[in-house]
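stage 2 :: seqdesign
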C-alpha cells in the first residue's frame, strides 16, 4: 500500500483500528473533527478540583462475562478496574405524591459490570499510546471522499480553515452512520440502499443527556442504599452510583426528558429539577453538591443529527451496512452501530474495528 489507510474518527473504534494497523506495519492517519480523542467517550474532571477524580459522561461500564474483546484489551493494556458499586437497596419512584419504594435485590440479581479507574478515557489514552502521535490529526473535519479511477482522495477542513487533501489506499469510517450520510460528500455517490441503511441507524446515545452530581463522600451507602434508582417521575429515569474507586461520591443519571424538551427548558432549569429529584430519593444530604457535570449529547454536532432527537421506541437494529458497490474495497465501516451483537457498547466498537482491519489485511495479502 503506497498510501496510508485513513481512519475518520478518533473514538475507541477508530483508535483501535489505527493501533491494529500500526502493529501490522501499515501506515495510517486518523482524522478527527473534535479537538480531543475519544468520541463519545468523555471522562471529565471537575475544574480546579482534580482530587475528586474523573467521571464518565459517556459510556461507563463493560461486562466481562459476555464481552471478551474489551476484557482482553483492558488486561493487555494493564488497566486498573473495579466493580460497579451495587451493594444495598434500590429505590423506585412511581409518583411525585408518594415516597420512593425501597427494594433489596436478591444477591447476584444483577450482572456484574466493571468500571475503569480514571474512567473510560484511560482506555482511550492507553490505545492512543500504541499509535505514532503524528498519525492523529485533531480539528480536521472530513467533508468529502472522492474516487477518481483508482485514486482515493479525502478532503477535509482544518481548524485554521485550510483545505486539506489526503491520498489514501483505503478509508475506515469510524463515525456514527448518520454523521457519515449527513456530513460527508461522496463522489461518485454511495449506492442508494447503502445511504438509506446509514440513515436508518440511530446514533447510540445521541438523543441522551447525562448528569453527574458529585459529593464529598457516597453518603447514601451509609443508609444501606446502592445508589441505583428508577423513576417514573423524572427528570432522571435511571440513576446509578458513579463514585470513583476511592475518595468522593457521585450519582449519575440518564434522562427521561426527550432532547427537544431539554432544549426548550435550558440547562439551569434541568439541573434544578435533578437536584430536587435526588433530594426526594436520597434525602437532604443530596442538596450538598460539591459539583455537577452535564453533557447533552443531542447538542453535540459530531454525535447527533436532527433525526436523533426523536426518542427511540425500540432498541435499534445495528450491523454492517450492505455492499458498497463501486466503493467496495475502498471504504470500510466501523463504530459501535456497525456491530450486530454488541451495537451500542464499547465491545461493539472494538469488534467493528477488528472486522474492518481484518478486511483490509485480507485485501493486502491478496495483492
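stage 2 :: out
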Amino acid at each position: 500500500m503506497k498510501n496510508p489507510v485513513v481512519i475518520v474518527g478518533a473514538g475507541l473504534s477508530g483508535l483501535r483500528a489505527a493501533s491494529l494497523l500500526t502493529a501490522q506495519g501499515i501506515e495510517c492517519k486518523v482524522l478527527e473533527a473534535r479537538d480531543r480523542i475519544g468520541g463519545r467517550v468523555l471522562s471529565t474532571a471537575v475544574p480546579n478540583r482534580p482530587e475528586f477524580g474523573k467521571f464518565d459522561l459517556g459510556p461507563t461500564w463493560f461486562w466481562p462475562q459476555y464481552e471478551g474483546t474489551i476484557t482482553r484489551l483492558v488486561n493487555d493494556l494493564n488497566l486498573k478496574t473495579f466493580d460497579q458499586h451495587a451493594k444495598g437497596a434500590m429505590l423506585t419512584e412511581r409518583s411525585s405524591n408518594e415516597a420512593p419504594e425501597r427494594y433489596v435485590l436478591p444477591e447476584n440479581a444483577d450482572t456484574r459490570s466493571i468500571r475503569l479507574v480514571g474512567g473510560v478515557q484511560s482506555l482511550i489514552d492507553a490505545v492512543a499510546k500504541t499509535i505514532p502521535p503524528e498519525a492523529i490529526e485533531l480539528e480536521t473535519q472530513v467533508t468529502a471522499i472522492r474516487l477518481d479511477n483508482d485514486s482515493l482522495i479525502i478532503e477535509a477542513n482544518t481548524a485554521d480553515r485550510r483545505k486539506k487533501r489526503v491520498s489514501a489506499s483505503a478509508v475506515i469510517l469510524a463515525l456514527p452512520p448518520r454523521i457519515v450520510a449527513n456530513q460527508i460528500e461522496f463522489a461518485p455517490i454511495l449506492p442508494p440502499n447503502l445511504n438509506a441503511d446509514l440513515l436508518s441507524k440511530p446514533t447510540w446515545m445521541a438523543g441522551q443527556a447525562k448528569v453527574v452530581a458529585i459529593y464529598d463522600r457516597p453518603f447514601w451507602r451509609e443508609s444501606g442504599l446502592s445508589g441505583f434508582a428508577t423513576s417514573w417521575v423524572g427528570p432522571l429515569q435511571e440513576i446509578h452510583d458513579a463514585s470513583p474507586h476511592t475518595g468522593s461520591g457521585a450519582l449519575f443519571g440518564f434522562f427521561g426528558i426527550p432532547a427537544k424538551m431539554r432544549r426548550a427548558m435550558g440547562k439551569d432549569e434541568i439541573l434544578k429539577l435533578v437536584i430536587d429529584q435526588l433530594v426526594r430519593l436520597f434525602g437532604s444530604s443530596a442538596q450538598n453538591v460539591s459539583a455537577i457535570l452535564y453533557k447533552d449529547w443531542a447538542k453535540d454536532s459530531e454525535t447527533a443529527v436532527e433525526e436523533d432527537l426523536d426518542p427511540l421506541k425500540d432498541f435499534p437494529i445495528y450491523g454492517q451496512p450492505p455492499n458498497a458497490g463501486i466503493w467496495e474495497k475502498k471504504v470500510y465501516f466501523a463504530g459501535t452501530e456497525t456491530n450486530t451483537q454488541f451495537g451500542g457498547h464499547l465491545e461493539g466498537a472494538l469488534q467493528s474495528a477488528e472486522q474492518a482491519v481484518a478486511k483490509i489485511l485480507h485485501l493486502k495479502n491478496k495483492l
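stage 3 :: structure notes
- The chain has two domains: 1-41+121-202+306-366, 81-116+207-299.
- The chain is about 25% helix and 30% strand.
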